[in-house]
Amino acid sequence: VASALTKADVKLVLLLRDPRDIVVSRAKYITRPHAGHRLHRYFTEVLTTDEGRVMACIRGVPAEHSGDGRALGDIDTLIRSFLVWAKRHQTHLCRFEDLVGSQGGGSDPAQLEALKRLVEFLGVGIAQPEVESIARATFSKDSLTFRKGKIGDWRQHFTAEHKAAFLEHAGDLL
Q1: Nearest to 40 by CA among 29, 25, 51, 50
Q2: Do residues 112 and 132 make contact, with C-beta atoms less than 8 angstroms apart?
Q3: CA 174, CA 166: separation in Å to the nearest integer?
Q4: Is the dihedral of CA 136, 138, 140, 142 positive or negative?
Q5: What is the C-alpha radius of gyration for the chain, rounded to an integer number of angstroms?
Q6: Share in percent of the chain as helix, strand, coil (round to 5)
Q7: What DSSP designation does 43 have?
Q8: How does pLDDT run across 120-157, given as a tens digit for each residue?
Q9: How many angstroms separate the CA atoms of 122 and 95, rounded?
Q10: DSSP state of 91
Q11: How many CB atoms are closer than 10 A to CB 75?
Q12: What would the pLDDT profile of 80-117 be if each residue is shown by its tens digit?
């Protein structure tokens, strides 16, 4: 895939986020009725607490619990499957924490700078007013995948057991 993308001169954007926030986001997303996720039944009928769902997203879920016979890998496996793309020469790294701006707990100057770097990487000639317009629209509660968009929300959901399990499974990612 990487070879074909390089040959076609495709540029990739890899959005990085604190993996602890990814865990919480994933646990919440799978339980949403409109998501249609293959683990929705397991996460709503078997895992009956948010604590159990968060732990499942840290440790992974065996294949026998999914609707399609595929396991859900642990958070380390998930993150590392994306990080390999960072080594490609046509991949731009963007941090979620920079893109959310002040509405998500970040800063507006960092958001504008991140968008400016992204626009430059993509080679699309967008003027500053347009970049500012994009910045205002980036934090969208209308997105299907949007829940809170807050930096560090994991602190509201992780117990001491979650912290220990995360460090065991993916501590070096931090």
Answers
A1: 29
A2: yes
A3: 10
A4: positive
A5: 18
A6: 60, 5, 30
A7: I
A8: 999 988 988 999 998 888 877 777 677 788 899 999 99
A9: 16
A10: E
A11: 22
A12: 999 988 887 789 999 999 999 898 899 999 999 999 99
**Amino acid letter at 118?**
L
Q: What is the DSSP letter of 95?
A: E
Query: Above 80 in pLDDT, residue 79?
Result: yes
> Are 40 and 136 a contacting pair, CB within 8 Å?
no
Position 6 confidence tier, pLDDT thresholds 50, 70, 90: confident
Task: Indicate whether 62 pLDDT > 90.
Answer: yes
- 108-118 per-position pLDDT tens digit: 999 999 999 99
Quickly count: other Cβ atoms within 10 Å of residue 149's Cβ: 22
Q: String of b and e for 4-35 (b: at least 16 CB within 10 Å)?
A: eeeeeeeeeeeebbbbbbbbbbbbbbbbeeee
CA distance 21 to 4: 32
Which residues on adjacent β-strands are paired with residue 89?
none
CB-based burial, 91-130: b 16+ in 10 Å, e otherwise: bbbbbbbbbbbebbebeeebbbebbeebbebeeeeeeeee
